[in-house]
Amino acid sequence: MNRIMAIVFLAILLAGCRQDRVTDQMKENRVIKDVKAVVVSAHPQASHAGVMILKKGGNAVDAAVATGFALAVCYPAAGNIGGGGFMLIRTSTGDHDLIDFREKAPQAASKDMYLDAGRNVVTGLSTDTHLAAGVPGSVDGMIRIHAKYGRLDFREIIQPSVDLAANGFILTREQASSLNRLAEMFRQKNPDGCAFVKEGQWEQGDTLCQPELSAALERIRDYGREGFYAGLTARLIVDEMKRGNGIITADDLENYSSVFRKPLSSTYRGYDIVTCPPPSAGGIILLQLLGMLEPFSPGEMKFHSPEMIHLIAEAQRRAFADRAKYAGDDDFIEMPVREMLNGNYLKERMASFDPLAATPSSAIEAGDPVNFESQETTHYSVVDEEGNAVAVTTTLNGSYGSGIVVKGAGFLLNNEMDDFSVKPGFPNMYGLTGSLANAIEPEKRMLSSMTPVIVEKEGKLFLVAGSPGGSTIPTSVFQVIINLIDYNMDPRVAVDTGRFHHQWLPDRISIERNSVTAESAGRLQKMGHVLHEVSGLGRVNAVFALQNGLLEGVADKRGDNSASGY
Ligand code: GLY
How far, in Å, CA of 166 to CA of 160, rounded? Predict the structure, then answer.
């Protein structure tokens, strides 16, 4: 497809066309059904880049790596080469694997680095400055996972992103308005200019070119890992650190390594749930919620009735209380993961559940699992024709990370250090508190909520999913799973329907606008719940295995998400 045709085609997609568009046997839309292979991501051009790799004979890992680099170009709010994440894999033979490419604290980081002399947290230091950046992991992760599972040449996989950065991508309406809203922030943090700022206002349909990012991607294409963690890009990162009193050194970059880990798994009503282990707490929360819910029958309660929301919010409250106390990087701390997921422990956690009244969070402490012998990210899901499935969640932490672009290299620095507990009990940008388990230490990974998940039924693929949304990630993923399993919903409805979230502290239920009736809200308040209306929770991008052996890709209606497949 030449460039003009591609622009016309994408303009149609971005204009909100709701019919499947079929080109060369390809379908592209928010929801596509009856396909053999599919990529669902936060941006149409990234999903398209992934599917083109599948059409060239690549497998799901090749497509996931291509989509990841494309998101670094066309979804800069969260797609990245300066951040980190987790990739969960299920091979067509049913084996599971996970690569953790979460950022690490630099060697010069220390427990109290965001506190002043009076031990008060200095506002903005862990979110808005060069000190907020963890050592990036995405490039190492993509290269290692490709080396283990990829089929096509790495250069072929990254080249579309090199071109997309050089030639530009088309801004969606949401992207244009967020860049306009943040223009002053970008100007202040990047006094020498950056690709995200222009004279005048951005408009939907504008082309945003990133020549410096294209050159940085070219160096990764040509030199692999060394093209980012050494040489010119590493020098540019270290120079950027020096300009802004950051602490990432050439040694930090050289020493960074992603890690292959065993995924966490459990069952729920006969389904096998495979998800992310620490240093994300997301998988633990998801499995705790499912375990706490299993003895109950939510499917017999009316969907979004006060009884159903109350039951689930109480389970969420208890899971997040455990997270605050126990969760951290278990390469550094002893985390009682097995005990936190023990069925008897989870039953005991719900023993104090009162079906008629909210239990105040002040009355809920973390449990004691050991004596019973845990806003902005992006998720994409890929399944290929052979049945290999990949779920990837990746982030810069805040929207556009720290907002600081590495001068000369064109990519954003993450502000992931804020995911550490900067001071016990002090809430991070998602309102999450933590303990010493998640205290800062050199080379430790900060706790995450990312929850890529793969669900199977009788050994066969059922669902691939995940979501952005900080603390709301595991509760969004959880609700899609119970919508499918307990409420037997159609995949599209399971993703689109309203969501709610409780995270222990603050002690309130966040509920998406218009997802409960005024009467239900009133009854929840009478039970003692505080309700907090929000515009959106999570953006789940999912693939469902259909009964006919084909796939359905469902991109969340909350955003510019898009599915491409054939
Ligand atoms: N930075 C958000 C998360 O990892 O949960």
Answer: 10
CB atoms within 10 A of CB 262: 9
Per the DSSP assignment, residues forming a β-bridge with 460 are: 457
Task: Note whether 327 and 438 are within 8 A (CB).
Answer: yes
Ligand 1 centroid to residue 510 C-alpha, Å: 18
Q: Maximum distance among all alpha carbons in the chain? A: 65
Q: Is the CB of 374 under 6 A from ligand 1?
A: no
């037997």: which residue's tokens?
A: 488
Torsion, Cα of 367, 372, 374, 380 (10° steps): -150
In this structure, what DSSP letter does residue 420 have?
S
Cα–ligand 1 centroid distance for 430 (angstroms)? 9
Determine which one of 377, 378, 433, 475 is catalytic.
Answer: 377
Active site residue 267: no
Six-digit token string for 112: 């109290």
3-state secondary structure of 424: coil
Would you give the DSSP letter of residue 82? S
Distance, CA of 277 to CA of 275 (rounded, Å): 7
Query: pTM for this structure?
Result: 0.95
Ligand 1 centroid to Cα of residue 392, in Å, is 13
Q: Does any ligand 1 atom lie closer than 6 A to the CB of residue 470?
A: yes
Task: Assign residue 119 a region (left: φ > 0; alpha: ψ between -120 and 50; beta: otherwise).
Answer: left
Ligand 1 pocket residue status of 428, Cβ below 6 Å:
no
Other residues' Cβ atoms within 10 Å of the Cβ of residue 330: 17
Atom of ligand 1 nearest to the CA of 446: 4
Q: Please name the amino acid found at residue 281.
A: A
| Burial of 549 (C-beta count, 10 Å sphere; 0-12/13-18/19+) | exposed
* Token code pair at residue 46: 């990234």
* Atom 3 of ligand 1, nearest CA residue: 448
* Residue type present at position 58: G
Does the CB atom of residue 538 touch ligand 1 within 6 A? no
Nearest CA residue ID for atom 4, ligand 1: 448
| Strand locations in 105-190 (E) | 169-170
- Which of 127, 284, 412, 416 to probe ligand 1 with, by most ligand atoms within 8 A of CB? 416
Between the CA of residue 162 and those of 154, 213, 367, what are the distances in Å? 12, 8, 49
H or E element that contains 460 = strand 460-465
Backbone angles phi, psi at 349, to 5 degrees: -60, -35
Which tens digits make up the pLDDT trace of 172-222?
A: 999 999 999 999 999 999 999 999 999 999 999 999 999 999 999 999 999
State how far the Cα of 345 lies from the Cα of 187, in Å rounded to an integer. 51
Ligand 1 and 450: CB distance under 6 A: yes
Cα dist from 342 to 254, 266, 345, 482, 502, whole Å: 39, 10, 5, 20, 22
The predicted-structure confidence for 78-117, as pLDDT tens digits, reads as follows 999 999 999 999 999 999 999 999 999 999 999 999 999 9
